[in-house]
């Protein structure tokens, strides 16, 4: 899947911003909607996947970040999308794995047995980011889930568990991968978000935009 119809994407984003149609909490309602809603006029991201070549996991993570941003920052996020995509033919299929790896690396360091769960998941995200297989994905998902239950008070465990589950589902179920990927992004910032949620989400937004911008051109 490669990006396509970039001129149309640019027009759609500009049109919805000009109409002040970007809102939180609803996919599409009475001519207004969220990040996905303004691209699809529905709750189904598949329209944007098919029309613009934007992968569903990326859209789900973008939506999750958008919903937690202050209003002006959310609009800036949506406005930045066309410039980040830049052109037709870019391969964004691994951006969500790169983002999840970056978010797990951004977690504060924790005690050794917990970090021992997170580090292999980061390594797995790195493999998936390079288009390689992560054979241990299911095993680490179970392992991470065990630690998540044992240390439920720490968001890092959930981040690792959700990221591992996302990896497990990626090959067979893109929707589930996107679902768990979005939760991994949310969990990774949970502790910091209590004190500075806007700053954390702005950082996530900027990370995602940067990864989209630097994505390579694909081959047909």
Question: Please, how many helices?
Answer: 11
**Structural class label:** mainly alpha
- Averaging pLDDT over every residue, what do you get? 80
> What is the count of structural domains?
2
Q: Per DSSP, what share of the residues sits in E-state strands of 2 or more residues?
A: under 5%
Helix fraction, binned, reads: 55-70%
Shape: globular
Give the N-terminus to C-terminus distance in angstroms.
9 Å
Elements, N to C (H/E): HEEHHHHHHHHHH
> Could you tell me the number of beta strands?
2
Oligomer: single chain
Instruction: Show unreliable segments.
Output: 145-154
SSE topology sketch:
Elements: H1 6-18, E1 28-29, E2 32-33, H2 35-40, H3 46-52, H4 56-68, H5 71-85, H6 95-105, H7 112-129, H8 137-150, H9 155-170, H10 174-188, H11 190-214
Antiparallel strand pairs: 1-2
Helix pairs in contact: 1-5, 4-5, 4-10, 4-11, 5-11, 6-7, 6-10, 6-11, 7-8, 7-9, 8-9, 9-10
Q: What this model shows, in words?
A:
The chain contains 11 helices and 2 strands. The chain has 2 domains: 6-92, no CATH class; 95-195, no CATH class. The protein has 220 residues and is mostly helical. β1 and β2 (32-33) form a beta hairpin. Mean pLDDT is 80; it is low at 145-154.
């Amino acid at each position: 899947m490669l990006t396509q119809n970039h001129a149309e994407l640019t027009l759609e984003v500009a049109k919805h911003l000009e109409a002040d149609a970007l809102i939180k909490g609803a996919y599409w309602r009475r001519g207004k909607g969220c990040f996905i809603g303004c691209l699809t006029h529905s709750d189904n991201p598949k329209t944007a996947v098919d029309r613009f070549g934007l992968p569903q996991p990326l859209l789900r993570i973008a939506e999750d970040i958008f919903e937690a941003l202050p209003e002006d920052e959310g609009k800036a996020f949506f406005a930045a999308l066309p410039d980040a995509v830049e052109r037709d033919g870019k391969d964004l299929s691994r951006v969500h794995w790169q983002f999840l790896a970056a978010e797990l690396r951004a977690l504060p360091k924790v005690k050794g047995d917990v970090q021992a769960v997170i580090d292999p998941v980061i390594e797995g995200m790195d493999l998936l980011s390079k288009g390689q297989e992560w054979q241990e994905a299911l095993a680490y998902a179970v392992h991470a889930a065990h630690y998540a239950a044992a240390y439920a008070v720490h968001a890092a465990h959930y981040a690792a568990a959700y990221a591992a589950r996302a990896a497990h589902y990626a090959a067979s179920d893109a929707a589930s991968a996107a679902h768990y990927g979005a939760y991994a992004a949310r969990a990774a910032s949970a502790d910091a978000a209590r004190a500075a949620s806007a700053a954390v989400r702005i950082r996530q937004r900027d990370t995602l935009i940067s990864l989209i911008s630097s994505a390579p051109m694909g081959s047909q």
